[in-house]
Amino acid sequence: MDPTKHDDFSVDLNNPELWAHPRAFLDVWDTLHPWFEMRGYILYPRDPNYCYTPRPGEGEPYNLPEETLEYPFAQTLRGDEYYRSFSAKVGLWVAVDSKHRDVVIKTVPSDYDELAIARKLSTEPMKSDPHNCIVPVLEVLQFNAEFSFIIMPRWSAIPYTNGDVFDCLETSFCFTLHMLQALAFLHENGIVHRDISFRNVLVNCNGYTEHIPPVSLRPDDKWQPRFVLCDFDISVIFPPDIPPSERVLPASETSWGELSFHPQDVSDGDATYDPFAFDVACMGAMLCIAIGPTTKAVPLLAPFLDRMITPHISSRYTASEALDAFTEIMRTLSQEFLRQTPAPPFVNIRGAWQNHDRWDGLPDDFVKEHLGPEGPVRPRRKKVSYSPDGSMSSVWVEWDVPIPLPY
């Protein structure tokens, strides 16, 4: 059998029923086992409950790697019974390579920008750029004219349902720095992510998920955390010859992605929006969760976060400006300070970026120096109501209107 051919496997990835539910995709992956094995990857097996935990045994391909794993592969922070388990996801599977290293395989249509982005960011000198805090791509396998598979090392998601993911200030500031580097890197290469949220952040370790008690992400002599953005399903890459003024997208597409972090950039009825500025505000909303509770200890974070999420788009940081500003803040912090435990996390992380007053308790002279006559940033919020017939209506209200958030 010719390993360069795929015609030996009759898999129709264009069947829309396959994309309707994770279980509908299971038979596809079963069929693809030999196709991937000829290319050096052994897919995880599955049990009747659609959960996948290969139990390593002597001589089996699912044994743990014998050598210490180095970048881009993740360090194992838990026992094998945890870090190899997996639940079915549409178009996504896990496997091990010939050296028993865990990888993730993602099915991507050939006409998606995600595939072009993966090819672009996995080339030199992109891979060696220190600001490339994007999930690494090991290789791209073309299945047919319509679909390809992106092979990535298996890193863990961080538990976006909790606020206690950061067990020291160094970790939360490392997270912030890496996210800003990732965004600046993408924007410099004409790429907008459009779905920035905790659920699309990975860290270079295995065995750390929202479903089990967290392990420490505190840096030490053996391991340094590296946080990366992932999931480019709805991302867009603009050709380099398009001027910035024309890099816009339809306003209707602002409803795509993680809505709870979205700014109201088109609330006045705009037909298009600037996705680069939109990305910055979404990133700012996420960082309000990550480092917002720290503003009393580091007051400069208050005006920094305000500039990221301000509804005045012309005054909003660009991604590179935000990175430069945060780098300057980092220079004022000592290692002793960064080893401290963070302030208590927010209880409701989804609405906290709008609810939290970053300026509360800061010195009066600092507030007067950094807050102009407009006052702190208070994004408008969306009040949703339902009529008896089930129809929904919404209205934008200002910060000082006391309404419950619809999260």
Automatic annotation (TrEMBL):
SMART domains: S_TKc. GO terms for molecular function: ATP binding; protein serine/threonine kinase activity. One of its GO terms (biological process) is mitotic DNA damage checkpoint signaling. Residues 71-397 form the Protein kinase domain. InterPro entries: Kinase-like_dom_sf, Prot_kinase_dom, Ser-Thr/Tyr_kinase_cat_dom, Tyr_kinase_AS. Transmembrane segments: none annotated. GO terms for cellular component: nucleus. This is Protein kinase domain-containing protein.
